[in-house]
Amino acid sequence: MADHPVDEKLPALKMATTGLQHVAAMYAGVVAPPLIVGAAIGLTATDLTFLTGACLFTAGLATFLQTIGIWKIGARLPFVNGVTFAGVAPMTAIVASTEDKSDALPIIFGAVIVAGLLGFIAAPAFCKAVRFFPPVVTGSVITLIGISLLPVAFGWAQGPNPAADDYGSATNLGLAAVTLLIVLLLRRFTRGFVKQIAVLLGLVAGTLIAIPFGVTDFGPVADADVIGFPAPFHFGAPQFQLAAILSMCVVMVVSMTESTADMLALGEIVDRPADEKTIAAGLRADTLGSAISPLFNGFMCSAFAQNIGLVAMTKIRSRYVVAVGGGFLVLMGLCPMAASLIAVVPRPVLGGAGVVLFGSVAASGIQTLVRAGLDRDNNVLIVAVSLAVGIIPITAPEFYHAFPETARIVLDSGISTGCVAAVLLNLAFNHLGRGGRDAHDVTHPMEAGEEITGVPRAPAAP
Fold it and tell me: Do residues 172 and 158 make contact, with C-beta atoms less than 8 angstroms apart?
């Protein structure tokens, strides 16, 4: 009996090239979180290179867990794992609330370890509770992730140092705009592999264009070793603070919800539907990978949805191809010189590419909301309020200034507060009491009986 395409082992050259394509599709997404958090802390170029390499290394390990698997761990699907964007805003909030910035990473690592272990224990039960995280909740959260990250891209576009004379200069903004234009042109006029790596090519082109303007620094590459290892606890032993742990536990719930949705989608694409057993095994890989990651100075890991799109586009369904991609990630993490290349990219160039990268996250959340049934008044209210609550820290950063610092670690993360609001509102409107009875009635939030313009009224539930 022939192997299922998911278990097929392709010729070595094809495995290598298609594995590299998966790395190219996810690379920018893996290195962005350590860049954001590292910049917030004020890490040196050397430490930033180390942190980036560690995240590449741990993403490779987590990908191995998912694709190859051990025991009841791993979905054994062509599933790429990497640093989740969902954790970026809460981690920067932890950094902002930490007086001694040298303690920020140990506090983050401690919180991720605890959240990962709790998630591992909860994985089997979470499969049964996933009905409380429908598209209206996950779509709201994913949209908030993108919206929360966009200000980071705008800050990068202005330059690396707000105190510098050239911060926000025409040169910096021009480099960001040119990079954005290059990425858009590549996405519009190319196809296949080139189109998939448009962001990566945009970063390369933008960096080369920036050289004559004197904003490209090749020092990190020159100073980096060819071979290195992300020594455990390089930034210090983990510290465990309750507020930070609660914040990252919320992120873990969001991450597990996203991964569940991704496994369901990927199972359909590769013609091996993900049942409850597969989802539980996949979530164990996610959470165990996250718990192990801080030991090697990495962050929380989750599924990368863009790679699912790559599987659908290429029709190559072998999980071993993705495992080879994980091997490349590990090798890159063991080569500081390779990891340092991203440190060469000027911040304005990163800002231009970040508009596409982070905006795409928000757009994918909107796509999820479109499928969430916004013709239902209950869902409109859930989205409206959860987005409003989640945007508070972005539009009014001092809104929670009177609250204790420990509480602000959670409250200043729009993703965390928005997620909690979405889950509670979904329970209140769609699960408890009369929630289901009015689910199909589309009315204006303030005026009973008025339908949303252009949206036909759905038939009442029998």
Answer: yes
Q: In a 3-state reduction of DSSP, which class is residue 303? A: strand
What value does the CA radius of gyration of the chain take, rounded to a whole number of Å? 22
- Mean pLDDT, all residues of the chain: 81
Close Cβ partners of 213 (under 8 Å, ≥ 6 residues apart): 171, 175
Question: Angle at the Cα of 135 (from 396 to 290), degrees rounded to 5?
Answer: 75
> What's the CA angle centered on 14, arms 9 and 18, to 5 degrees?
100
Among candidates 107, 150, 215, 112, which has minimal Cα distance to 395?
A: 150
And the tokens for 167?
Answer: 């911060």
Q: Closest Cα partner for 126 from 260, 286, 304?
A: 260
Q: What is the mean pLDDT of residues 222-227?
A: 73
pLDDT digits (tens, 9 = 90+) for 63-74: 999 999 888 898
312 CB-near residues (< 8 Å, 6+ apart): 269
Task: Dump pLDDT digits (tens) for 380-420.
Answer: 999 999 999 989 988 888 898 888 766 776 677 777 788 78
Asked if residues 89 and 149 have their Cβ atoms less than 8 Å apart, the reply is yes
Taking CA 231 as the corner, what is the angle to CA 306 and CA 236, rounded to the nearest 5 degrees?
100
DSSP state of 454: T
Task: State pTM to two decimals.
Answer: 0.68
Answer for the pair 302, 286: CB distance below 8 angstroms, yes or no. Answer: yes
User: In terms of DSSP H, where are the helices of 86-197?
Assistant: 88-97, 104-129, 135-158, 170-189, 192-196
Where is 150: in which H helix or E strand?
helix 135-158
